[in-house]
Each structure stands twice: as structure tokens, then as C-alpha cells.
Amino acid sequence: LEGDGKRSNRSAIGAEVTVEAGGQTYKRTVTGAKGYLSQSELVVTVGLGSATAADKVTVRWPGKDAGPPQTWTGLKADKQYTLT
Question: In terms of Cα–Cα distance, which of 55, 63, 51, 68 is closest to 18?
């Protein structure tokens, strides 16, 4: 998943992503770096195991003007999505 925060930061740094698939829940946070003088890829990758789609993806965008969490359903596995 790749994020684009229209009402908060454009890179979605700090966004909290929750993916529900196959009875499991996976949580990720978009981070810009993990160490001194480093940069992390802004794409959130989630392995779904044997599930062929995410039942539900919820994004809590960062920032005071981000609005309520957004939800997507039925996103198929083995694809890259840009969530705006």
C-alpha cells in the first residue's frame, strides 16, 4: 500500500494501517526512517498468507486535519494500491 495524505502530509508518514485478512489482523505504521542518516521505503507491505484478499484495510491518517479513519474492503492480494 502506498499512501497519499491530501489533508495531512503528502507522504503519509505516521499513518497507521490496519489490515484484516483470513482471520488475522496486521498493523503497520508508515515511517520515514529507522536509524541515523537512513530513509525507509514509504510503501507498506503486508503478507496475507493464504488469503487472496484483505477483508478490510483501515488507515488512520496523521495530523489534526486528517479527518476520520478511512476503510477499504476487498483489496486483492499480490497487487499494489495507492490509497488517497
Answer: 55
What string of H, E and C letters represents the secondary structure of the chain? CEECCCCCCCCCCCCEEEEEECCEEEEEECCCCCCCCCCCCCCCCCCCCCCCEEEEEEEECCCCCCCCCEEEEEEECCCCCEEC
The predicted model gives 39-49 an average pLDDT of 86
Cα angle: 74, vertex 78, 84; to 5 degrees: 55
**Higher-pLDDT residue of 65, 70:** 70
Tell whether the model's pLDDT for residue 82 goes beyond 70.
Answer: yes
Whether pLDDT at 41 is above 60: yes
Please tell me the distance from the alpha carbon of residue 40 to that of residue 34, in angstroms, as a whole number: 7
Per-residue pLDDT at 8:
59
